[in-house]
């Protein structure tokens, strides 16, 4: 379980995020144990058609050629339950290698298909809080960004090595530092130093991982080098450098604070009351992610009190709906206080 920082931990210091593209199984096999060991949050940007097996053979062969086996649905769900962010990376991953067309060459209709199929599938698989989208091939355009706005909270854009100011110039254009198979630890450490000294946000973007040491092929990175980077980050005090996933980092630098459950639905089944929180995109927030309210009724007023388990904070107003086993509404109240 990775312990994601809270808003109160952010004091304007430098931030670093790890962002893995495509969804290689080695992200799970080799990356997760290292992230767990150093308690470093991460974001995994998944090509959904590789996971559900619908990506056409040619493209699949290309993908497998560089990163081995694709990650499974069960592994994605496990990573999400461990506290890692899951984000979208289109459904079919339009890139020049395949069809001569990047996402930027697609019609609006085709782009929307990619957006809604990707986040729709991830939600269907039970992943909460799908807020991010990483553009394949770093081919960002203003049109792609505009089309993403109703579906995502942010877009990770170019691997152009920029660090991001607070607040970001545009949440739908968040650049990153592309780490390829030959990128040295020294160069990455220097970039981390830049984030610390300038008090900016560095997103380190990678693809697959390998146990091979030294320089490796472009879309892999050596875990030996990655661990050296993790050790470097661990050597920095948290007041200087905060390791955080992308969705939380964006909340912090846009002053949104900790994640808030906007809407609460209570369902009554027999004598068991089940509470589910929903985020702004109507994603259900499961109890394992820090939403675990108790409730009490005093003079007709319902108050929910959350158990604070340290993994998330729930604070604000919600709508409470109590239904019976036959899905009939037996109680409904707006603006219920939720206190952490
Ligand atoms: Zn990609």
UniProtKB/TrEMBL annotation:
PROSITE patterns, per database record: NODB
Protein known as: NodB homology domain-containing protein
GO biological process: carbohydrate metabolic process
GO cellular component terms attached to this protein's record: extracellular region
Chief localization: secreted
Intracellular or extracellular location(s): Secreted
Domain named NodB homology: residues: 14-233
Organism, scientific name: Oceanobacillus arenosus
């Amino acid at each position: 379980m990775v312990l994601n920082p809270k808003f109160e931990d952010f004091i304007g210091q430098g931030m670093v995020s790890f962002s893995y593209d495509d969804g290689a199984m080695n992200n799970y096999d080799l990356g997760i144990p290292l992230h767990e060991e150093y308690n470093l949050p991460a974001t995994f940007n998944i090509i959904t058609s590789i996971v559900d097996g619908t990506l056409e053979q040619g493209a699949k062969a290309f993908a497998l050629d560089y990163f081995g086996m694709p990650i499974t649905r069960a592994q994605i769900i496990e990573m999400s339950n461990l506290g890692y962010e899951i984000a979208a990376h289109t459904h079919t991953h339009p890139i020049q290698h395949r069809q001569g067309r990047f996402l930027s060459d697609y019609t609006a209709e085709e782009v929307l298909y990619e957006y809604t199929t990707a986040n729709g599938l991830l939600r269907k698989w039970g992943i909460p809080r799908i807020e991010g989208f990483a553009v394949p091939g770093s081919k960002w355009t203003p049109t792609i960004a505009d089309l993403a706005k109703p579906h995502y909270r942010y877009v990770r854009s170019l691997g152009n090595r920029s660090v991001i100011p607070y607040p970001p110039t545009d949440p739908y254009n968040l650049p990153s530092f592309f780490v390829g198979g030959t990128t040295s630890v020294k160069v990455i450490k220097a970039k981390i130093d830049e984030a610390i000294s300038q008090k900016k946000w560095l997103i380190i973007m990678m693809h697959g991982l390998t146990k091979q040491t030294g320089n490796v092929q472009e879309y892999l990175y050596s875990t030996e080098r990655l661990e050296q980077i993790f050790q470097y980050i661990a050597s920095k005090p948290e007041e200087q450098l905060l390791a955080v996933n992308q969705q939380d980092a964006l909340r912090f630098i846009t002053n949104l604070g900790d994640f808030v459950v906007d809407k609460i639905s209570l369902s009554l089944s027999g004598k068991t009351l089940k509470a589910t929180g929903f985020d702004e995109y109507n994603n259900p927030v499961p109890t394992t992610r820090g939403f675990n309210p108790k409730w009490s009724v005093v003079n007709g007023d319902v108050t929910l009190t959350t158990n604070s388990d340290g993994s998330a904070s729930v604070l604000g107003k919600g709508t409470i709906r109590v239904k019976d086993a036959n899905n009939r509404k037996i109680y409904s109240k707006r603006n219920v206080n939720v206190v952490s």
